[in-house]
Design brief:
This protein has nine helices and 21 strands. The termini are far apart. By secondary structure, the chain is of the alpha+beta class. It is about 25% helix and about 25% strand. Helix 1 runs parallel beside helix 5 and helix 1 packs parallel to helix 8. The strands form four sheets. Strands 1, 2, 7, 8, 9, 10, 19 and 20 form an eight-stranded mixed sheet that branches. Strands 4, 5, 12, 13, 14, 15, 16 and 17 form an eight-stranded mixed sheet that branches. It has a three-stranded antiparallel sheet with strand order 11-18-21. It folds into two domains: about 200 residues, 3-Layer(bba) Sandwich (FAD/NAD(P)-binding domain); about 150 residues, D-Amino Acid Oxidase, Chain A, domain 2 (2-Layer Sandwich), CATH 3.30.9. Strand 4 and strand 5 form a beta hairpin.
């Protein structure tokens, strides 16, 4: 039985990361709906996914957060990336490379300190009018009658007309439906931040289109057990803002069981990246910031069900769809999902909108996601060599 005295919201969003925060900001700015964001952690906190693709810029602008992000010191411009699967023949590209060749215009995205970036987006959601509660995990969700009961552990419960799961890849609280793997890869990422490293664009070679104008890319380097990302990230170290670099190994978990390959050990991690061709030229004098590394597992999964009209539930962001981070698409997808979900929710609540059919709204959201998925898969085939090691 639902506690009728529990506070009632139009929309409750579990998860205050980029997807949840963007959805909350859009709904608060564009509707009169009462919106609550429930975030399990206390921000700021570090997170995987520090380099973005360029379509994120107009999406941040639509939510109203772009100006706040650019006014901060948490970001570095990103102009593209390079892939050193064969160190003798690295391959580099600007965003929209063919269009750049035609018009000379650089499309750009950003590399970010996720702790600061995510804090800005969550604060923006609150400033836009959404209610935000941190350190408030959702422990259970149940549809009872016309409302959803959202249990907050010892903090009681709230009710809502529509529930959104934006709790990330480890989500398990809402919509039924298995998460199917999109590929055979079951990877683990192990990463940390280093200081006193060289910029990715500093490598010598005619292939390095970023060097002449000192344009910042993401670097990707193959090694025997997978690949490594290399991302410039502004961080505060001992009270001083420094240009650090995020270095992450992506590998098969089985590799960690082999002798001398448990890359979760900081000393072994640094020794490994210092041996990788080209990358070793960048990190030869680098030192790890702190004495611990981060890990994340289970890449490339898609939810069998992203929306459920009967239970009035939606999944967005990594809770719905996540692809191995080679193309830096995760946060952009989350914000695109949030934008599509905002449209769906507005149509659902706006009884005056002609043709505001929930099924049609859900179809639109799934259609957008299907197009993004097909686009990415097409990009995978056209951009990455077939012998790609990750």
């Amino acid at each position: 039985m639902t506690n009728s005295s529990a506070e009632l919201y139009d929309v409750v969003i579990a998860g205050g990361g980029p997807g949840g925060a963007t959805l909350a900001a859009l709904l608060a700015r564009e509707t009169q709906l009462r919106v609550l964001v429930l975030e399990a952690e206390r921000f700021p906190r570090d997170h995987i996914g520090e380099s973005f693709v360029h379509p994120i810029i107009p999406n941040l602008e639509r939510s109203g957060a772009l100006g706040k992000v650019l006014a901060s010191e948490c970001w570095v411009k990103k102009y593209g990336g390079y892939y050193a699967w064969d160190p003798a023949q690295p391959w580099a590209t600007y965003f929209e490379h063919e269009q750049h060749e035609n018009d000379g215009f650089y499309r750009w995205a950003i590399h970010v300190n996720r702790a600061e970036f995510d804090q800005i987006l969550l604060d923006h959601a609150a400033a836009s009018g959404a209610e935000v509660r941190e350190e408030t995990p959702v422990t259970a969700v149940e549809r009872v009658g016309d409302h959803t009961r959202v249990t907050l552990g010892e903090r009681g419960e709230v009710r809502c007309r529509l529930f959104v799961n934006a709790t990330g890849r480890t989500s398990n609280t809402t919509i039924s439906g298995e998460k199917a793997f999109l590929s055979a890869y079951r990877n683990i990422a192990i990463w940390g931040h280093v200081r006193d490293a060289k910029p990715a664009q500093s490598l010598a070679g005619d292939w390095n289109i970023f060097k002449e104008e000192d344009l910042s890319p993401i670097g990707n380097f193959a090694f025997d057990d997978g690949w490594v990302w290399y991302i410039p990230v502004p961080r505060m170290v001992d009270g001083v803002r420094v240009r650090a670099h995020s270095v992450g190994i992506v590998t098969d978990p089985a590799a960690l069981k082999q002798p001398g390959k448990d890359f979760r050990d900081p000393a072994l991690f640094m020794a490994t990246v210092r041996e990788i061709p080209l990358l070793r030229e960048l990190v030869g004098d680098a030192t790890l910031i702190g004495d611990t590394l981060h890990t994340a597992t289970n890449y490339s999964r898609i939810s069998g069900k992203m929306c459920d009209w009967e239970s009035k539930e939606i999944r967005i962001g990594d809770a719905a769809f996540f692809v191995d981070p080679l193309f830096s698409s995760g946060v952009n997808f989350a914000i695109i999902h949030a934008t599509a979900a905002a449209l769906l929710i507005k149509l659902t609540f706006d009884e005056a909108t002609p043709g505001a059919c929930p099924a049609r709204s859900v179809g639109r959201l799934r259609g957008q996601l299907a197009r993004r998925r097909a686009c990415l898969r097409g990009g995978d085939r056209s951009v990455v060599p077939r012998d790609f090691p990750g």
